[in-house]
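Before our next group meeting I need something from you. Please put the record directly below this note.
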Amino acid sequence: PVPRNIILTAIEAAGSAPSGAHRQPWHFVAVSDPLVKRQIRAEAERAEQEFYRSAPKEWLEALEPLGTDEHKPYLETAPWLIAVFAERFKLGENDVRSTNYYVQESVGIATGLLIAVLHHAGLATLTHTPSPMGFLSQLLGRPSNERAFLLLVVGYPAPDARVPDIRRKP
């Protein structure tokens, strides 16, 4: 188990990220409920099955050394999933829209801070981006002006965790 306060502190730190015109176009939904995680896994695996059936050969070859496939058991076994949403525009009174600026960049920076803080707390993370991700909006009750950016899997590493032998740029 990962204490809820660690997750909340990490999300608070992520919320301190800079953003275009200070619009803060991110929303984080932390999920620990086993039933919701099971639903997310089922939908993500459905999306992944379609991806692996239709992905270009080159892309599948690039994924091969990582040992990934359409099976995503960690979406249920990890203590937390954090769904990151990008707010494409703000909705004010009477559904008046106002523009958010540099949404992808701002949400990316906030997500990077979130990952860094979680790692600093001794947690492991895995970014998961099933395509399409619309099911996350539906399952988590998000408004129509938000789009799923990524799903972050969070927990302590399992004793038998296998990390692919990959290298980082110097």
